[in-house]
Every structure is written in structure tokens, then in C-alpha cells.
């Protein structure tokens, strides 16, 4: 068996991309990479009983050149006896509607089209051939309405699409697979692109070999190997003129940055980047498993998710970031709009005052509560769901020379002789006030508004109060009136413990 074919077969077997009897849709742009992909898939058709269809998305942005590409793909598929669907989409329309770049809009529409074709094929088989025509409709290269979109469908498109796993309810058939032609060069570009975007360790692993129904059989093959294999087999392909322009970020990385790096920094840079990607993928998998175990052990759910701050802050920053990202993806149902900035915002809440809130993608929010961080949509769970007010252990002792004030957020000292009644732990009541640094009395309600504490949190924040005078907004601040001063003789130490649990 030839070198490239053997390598691709090993990749497909290692990542369980295809099984005997599978159905697969090949994304075929007409470029070298996608032609190689289609030809190699056809070698599995007879020995594995694999059924193959092809999809070409007509981007219309390149005029006659795009029409030429569509005609080429139709002819190519006829030669391989592969049913082919030519689909037109409106990239410019979507870009204008959603405020996206044409590059982003084209990528979205390509993956959307691939997913729809896969679902349609599953629907055909589910209906046991009830739909007339089946493969015959494909073979004529039928075109859907919706206007034009151009660009590589499989060549150079290195972004992952959030496609469903698919599946046939009540059927023994496996989901229809979608094969795209990303190769090792695309992997290098993706890792660099993600690095510059600040996507963290998750982005450094680059393109995954398999995600849901999407498979990437060529991901271990470099571009030069693909071109040589096509030449050896006399297989033609088309050139997309936009691949040579510097209008798109990936083209600049491919055509400018990488050649500069390999010429002036290290000729083996591409290989080193790929090795880094493989190590990052292993580290990412390990940390995802660690985060899942930590979430199972510590995080309370329904509704939303509650992260206990004390246990959370004891973990390394990298594990905390994975815990937060995992929960955000679970709660949001997607990850496309989530980034390190959102993870950092949530993590910072652990060291901030009770009631602080950040808004996140997918309608999510994160709120600092007394014992931790709540994440979810709408309001946090009620007190009954999360537990009672905290137990505050109080101890009175004489002040001694040289005593230092406690720095623990949940341990505070007060001038005992200034307390007029018996301190109690409760939530806010009408008439509550606190004394600020300028000796100004401020209504607690007004303070919460000024500090932008969310409305749904104001009745849940625990207080230590001396009548209507709030001594301590637990986890937040104390009243200046009760602070230890030079004349303090007796000290009240208040230590807030876990909700519903008294500290020994």
C-alpha cells in the first residue's frame, strides 16, 4: 500500500472514523485537498461497503470562477460514480444580517449545509426510501435557492463547526459522517491563529480528528504529500484564486507568517507546532477529565450551578479555568462565543464582594454569593435550595498590645463596647443602615443600589446586625463605626462558617 493511503487508513482506524457499511458525505470544493479526500474515500467504498455522497457549496463571490469550480466538481464526482449535490448559499446576505465577516458567514453556511445534507440522508433511510429519487436527485447536481457563496469548502477551512452528533431514532444505522479535507498545514495555521486570539490551552490543540459526525482523515498529511499523490494518480484539481490573497487572516498566516518563521526562526517550526498541538490535546483531555471529577464532587446544580469558593480557590488556576469553561458550555449549550475573557470574569468573582455579577454569552450570568459563585440563567436558586444563613461564631476577649487585625474575608473584629444590643445574623430589613468611612450613615438599600448588587441578591446577602445598624455585610464590608481603634478595650471576633453548620 502506498505511503499516503496507508497513513490515512491508520488515522481513520485510530480515531474510529469509518466502520463497514457507513455513510459519509465528502465536502468537495474542487481544490487539491478535497479531491484527494474524495479519491481516498472511494478506495474504501468496495472493501468496507461504505456509501459516499459529495456536497459542493457554491459561494458565488468569485463569479465565473465559482461556476467553473462547480462544474469541475460535478464532472469529478461523475467520474468516481459518486452522487453530488451543488448547493448555493448567500454569504453576503448572512454577513450583512449578522454583522459577520464574509469568511465567518461562509464557514457557518458550509457547516450548516453539511449538517442538513446529513440529516436529509438519515431521513431518507429512516423512511425506507419513501422519498422519490434519492441518490438520483443528487447526481444531477441540484441547486438550492438562496443566492451565492464562494470559497473552499474543505481546503483551508480550519474552524470546527458545532454540529450535532446526529443519529437515527429507532434505527440500527449509525449517523451519517461528514468528511472534510483539513490537513497538517491547516492544523499549524489553526494553532497559530488560536494562539494569537488568546484561546488558551483548548485552542492550542488545534483541529480535532473527530467531533460528532465530522471526521478529518487527512489531518496527519501535509500539503506537499497531497500534491505529489494527486500528480502520481493523474488527478486534476482547481485553484481558488482567493487562497493567494492577503484579505483573510488564515491566508496571511499561510502565505506570509509561516514562511517568514521557517526562513528566519526555525526551518522545522511547522513540525514543532504540530508536536505542541498534540501535547496540548493530551493536556486538554486530562484537564477536562479532572474538571469533570471536580464538578461531580463539589458543584451543586439545579437550577444553574453553584461553585463553592473555598474549595475552588484551593485548586490551581488552570483547573479552575477548566471547571468554569466546562460549566459555561454545559449551561450555555454551545461554546462558540465563549472565550478566556469570560472564564476570567467568572474566576475573578471568587475574590470579589458578595453580590457582584458578570453577564455572559447565551443569556448566562455569574453572581458572587456568600459561599461561592452561582452560574446560570435568570435568578439564583432560593435560600431554601442553597441552605440557611451562615453560622457566625462570636468570641469576646481583651485587646492586647500588638494584636493584628484579621485579613480573612470571613473573620472580622469589632469594638465590642460600641455594640448596643445582641448581634444577630439575618438578611436585610427596612430601616437598615451602615456607617461609611466619612462617618456618614447610609441606608443599606441605597448602598446595594450604588454598589450595583443585583436586585435578586439583595434579600439573600447575610448580615451581622446590631438592631438596624448593620455591623457586617458578610463577605463584603463592615461598618466603620465598629472598627477597632486606639481606645478599644474589648474585641468581638466574628467568624462566619458554612451555611447551616457550626464551626467547632
Mind explaining what this structure looks like?
The protein is of the alpha+beta class and 504 residues long. The protein folds into three domains: 3-183 and 206-266, HUPs (Rossmann fold, 3-Layer(aba) Sandwich); 299-384, Uridine Diphospho-n-acetylenolpyruvylglucosamine Reductase, domain 3, CATH 3.30.465.60; 388-499, Phenylalanyl-tRNA Synthetase, Chain B, domain 3 (3-Layer(bba) Sandwich), CATH 3.50.40.10. The protein is 40% helix and 17% strand. The protein has helices at residues 3-14, 32-43, 45-48, 64-80, 91-98, 102-126, 135-139, 184-197, 200-204, 223-232, 249-264, 269-298, 309-313, 317-332, 340-349, 383-386, 444-450, 455-458, and strands spanning 23-27, 51-58, 84-88, 177-179, 210-211, 214-215, 300-301, 305-308, 357-359, 365-368, 372-376, 390-398, 411-415, 424-426, 433-435, 441-443, 463-466, 469-473, 477-478, 490-499. Helix 2 (32-43) packs across helix 10 and helix 8 crosses helix 12 (269-298). The radius of gyration is 30 Å and the shape is elongated.
Brief descriptors of the model:
504 residues; alpha+beta; Rossmann fold; Uridine Diphospho-n-acetylenolpyruvylglucosamine Reductase, domain 3; Phenylalanyl-tRNA Synthetase, Chain B, domain 3; 6-stranded mixed beta sheet; 5-stranded antiparallel beta sheet; 18 helices; 17% strand; disordered C terminus
Amino acid at each position: 500500500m502506498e505511503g499516503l493511503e496507508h497513513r490515512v487508513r491508520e488515522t481513520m482506524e485510530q480515531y474510529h472514523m469509518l466502520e463497514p457499511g457507513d455513510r459519509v458525505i465528502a465536502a468537495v470544493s474542487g481544490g487539491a485537498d478535497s479531491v484527494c479526500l474524495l479519491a481516498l474515500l472511494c478506495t474504501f467504498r468496495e472493501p468496507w461497503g461504505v456509501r459516499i455522497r459529495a456536497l459542493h457549496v457554491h459561494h458565488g463571490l468569485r463569479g465565473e470562477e465559482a461556476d467553473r469550480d462547480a462544474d469541475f466538481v460535478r464532472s469529478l464526482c461523475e467520474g468516481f460514480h459518486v452522487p453530488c449535490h451543488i448547493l448555493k448559499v448567500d454569504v453576503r446576505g448572512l454577513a450583512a444580517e449578522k454583522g459577520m465577516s464574509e469568511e465567518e458567514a461562509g464557514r457557518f453556511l458550509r457547516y450548516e449545509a453539511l449538517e442538513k445534507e446529513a440529516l436529509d440522508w438519515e431521513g431518507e433511510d429512516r423512511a425506507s426510501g419513501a422519498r422519490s429519487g434519492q441518490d438520483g436527485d443528487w447526481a444531477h447536481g441540484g441547486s438550492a435557492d438562496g443566492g451565492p457563496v464562494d470559497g473552499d469548502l474543505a481546503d483551508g477551512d480550519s474552524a470546527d463547526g458545532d454540529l450535532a452528533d446526529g443519529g437515527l431514532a429507532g434505527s440500527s444505522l449509525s449517523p451519517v459522517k461528514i468528511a472534510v479535507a483539513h490537513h497538517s498545514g491547516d492544523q499549524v495555521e489553526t494553532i497559530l491563529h488560536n494562539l494569537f486570539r488568546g484561546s488558551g490551552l483548548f485552542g492550542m490543540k488545534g483541529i480535532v480528528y473527530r467531533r460528532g459526525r465530522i471526521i478529518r482523515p487527512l489531518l496527519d498529511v501535509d500539503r506537499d504529500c497531497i500534491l505529489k499523490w494527486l500528480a502520481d494518480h493523474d488527478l486534476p484539481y482547481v485553484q481558488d484564486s482567493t487562497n493567494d490573497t492577503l484579505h483573510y487572516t488564515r491566508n496571511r498566516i499561510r502565505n506570509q507568517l509561516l514562511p517568514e518563521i521557517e526562513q528566519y526562526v526555525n526551518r522545522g517550526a511547522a513540525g514543532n507546532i504540530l508536536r505542541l498541538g498534540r501535547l496540548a490535546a493530551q493536556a486538554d483531555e486530562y484537564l477536562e477529565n479532572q474538571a469533570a471529577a471536580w464538578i461531580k464532587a463539589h458543584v451543586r446544580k439545579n437550577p444553574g450551578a453553584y461553585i463553592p469558593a473555598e474549595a475552588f480557590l484551593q485548586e490551581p488556576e488552570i483547573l479552575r479555568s477548566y471547571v468554569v469553561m466546562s460549566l459555561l458550555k454545559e449551561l450555555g449549550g454551545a461554546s462558540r462565543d465563549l472565550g478566556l475573557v469570560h472564564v476570567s470574569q467568572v474566576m475573578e468573582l471568587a475574590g470579589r464582594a458578595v453580590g457582584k455579577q458578570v453577564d455572559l454569552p447565551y443569556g448566562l450570568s455569574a453572581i458572587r454569593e456568600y459561599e461561592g459563585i452561582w452560574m446560570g440563567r435568570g435568578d439564583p436558586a432560593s435560600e431554601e435550595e442553597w441552605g440557611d444563613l451562615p453560622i457566625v461564631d462570636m468570641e469576646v476577649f481583651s485587646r492586647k498590645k500588638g494584636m493584628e487585625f484579621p485579613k480573612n474575608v470571613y473573620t472580622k473584629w469589632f469594638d465590642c463596647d460600641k455594640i448596643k444590643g445582641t448581634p444577630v445574623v439575618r438578611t436585610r430589613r427596612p430601616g437598615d443602615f451602615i456607617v461609611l468611612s466619612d462617618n456618614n450613615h447610609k441606608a443599606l438599600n441605597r448602598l446595594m443600589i450604588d454598589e450595583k448588587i443585583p436586585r435578586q441578591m439583595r434579600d439573600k446577602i447575610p448580615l451581622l446586625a446590631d438592631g438596624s445598624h448593620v455591623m457586617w455585610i458578610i463577605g463584603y464590608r463592615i461598618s466603620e463605626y465598629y472598627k477597632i481603634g486606639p481606645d478599644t478595650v474589648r474585641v468581638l471576633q466574628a467568624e462566619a462558617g458554612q451555611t447551616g453548620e457550626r464551626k467547632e
